[in-house]
Amino acid sequence: MKSILLHDLAALDGRRPSPFCWRAKYALAHKGLAFEASPVSMTDIRKLYGGAHETVPIIEDGERTVCDSWAIADYLDEAYPDRPRIFASPGERGLCRFIEASMFPSVVVHLFYAYVKDIHDVLPEKDRVYFRESREKRLGCALEEAAAGREARIENARAGLESLRVMLGQLGQPFVAGESPGYGDYVVASFLLWIASVATAPLLRADDPLLAWFERVRDLHGGIGRTATVNAIAG
Amino acid sequence: MKSILLHDLAALDGRRPSPFCWRAKYALAHKGLAFEASPVSMTDIRKLYGGAHETVPIIEDGERTVCDSWAIADYLDEAYPDRPRIFASPGERGLCRFIEASMFPSVVVHLFYAYVKDIHDVLPEKDRVYFRESREKRLGCALEEAAAGREARIENARAGLESLRVMLGQLGQPFVAGESPGYGDYVVASFLLWIASVATAPLLRADDPLLAWFERVRDLHGGIGRTATVNAIAG
């Protein structure tokens, strides 16, 4: 079987900052599918497939090309029904989508503000103008202003991750998906891998109990969460 | 088939304030199982089954007695495998537990402070001393102090429910469990039914988009979420 090609957002020095590409890598690994991750810089995505897609992840599997992390997960379950399912039921998929939705206001928005300048700084030179223009438009301010006073944003993000500490502590549940890891874990961990790949200020305290879970998820599938350069996530 | 007996926490004037009992009622209804809800006051729980259980819900199904909302859901799936599953996969159960865990720090703790005096006030006289003593010990202050300045707590709880607004808005997903309702919806809606049953100050603004979802969940299974006295949830 020809290996699946994954276009994976690349930054300097072997960094892979896209959380959505991390999810796709975990989804492929969960299915036990061999894949080749091909690095692509932000402004080169439009050069692929005649400009058909604006974002990564994009996978190419024989004749099929699929863009978007959710569409990729769905495609892999449909195309490879005999391999371990990413979503064992429609309910699992819906609950994972809800969990992603819950992370946007409580965690992701704070991470975006706090680390947007760090993301910029690890991009290759040719991506920086595009990144700055598009993100400053979205933020309504300069990247430097968004990141100013980021300690409060980092505190908010830490608080927004409290659900994991309750899960590990009071609940005694090792993974978001229960006793075994699943797409819910990949969704949450991919946001942390995004930050780990760029952070110049640690997101978590060194004694944060959720780090045990994060390291477990990084170790999965042959250590797929360790296949890129990262800065420290905690300190 | 003899109908299942559910011991359901009762308060004054037909109120049913326990979120955990609401979950059990939704779980029974989801399975399409007939049940009889028997009201029990807080201080009478120990009079059931020789004091074997300290909390409700408790169900009695023939010879079997099961206490605790999660244990009840698991029991119903095990005992009635041919009826619609509450958890179609172990992953669904784990994700629902994670969602509950995520609600405790972001929503439930704020609701508890903001509405603890309202809960007290709808309890029958004989439960009030026990409730006040046990909850003041947990809170470390008088019920009245916990509820003082509750506007900020209510604002926090509203913010903690933002995940539902993102789900309904950006995601366009009608239920926590996806296209169809599931236990994830029952977990979240049961916390709102708890508050609706006691609130003397509205939890939500009248134009909150999540009300559409809440009303849909109340309508499920023959309108099971409308079978008890409630105050307004929004205003």
What does this structure look like?
Two copies of one chain form a homodimer. Chain A has helices spanning 19-30, 69-79, 90-122, 125-139, 143-147, 150-160, 162-168, 183-196, 210-223, and strands spanning 4-9, 35-40, 58-61, 64-67. Chain A has 235 residues and is an alpha+beta fold. In chain A, strands 2-1-3-4 form a four-stranded mixed sheet, with helices on one face. In chain A, α1 (19-30) runs parallel beside α2 (69-79) and α3 runs parallel beside α8 (183-196). The longest helix of chain A is centred in the middle third of the chain and has 33 residues, at 90-122. The interface between A and B is large, with 36 and 36 residues.
Layout of secondary structure:
Two copies of one chain form a homodimer.
Chain A: E1 4-9, H1 19-30, E2 35-40, E3 58-61, E4 64-67, H2 69-79, H3 90-122, H4 125-139, H5 143-147, H6 150-160, H7 162-168, H8 183-196, H9 210-223
Parallel strand pairs in A: 1-2
Antiparallel strand pairs in A: 1-3, 3-4
Helix pairs in contact in A: 1-2, 1-8, 3-4, 3-6, 3-8
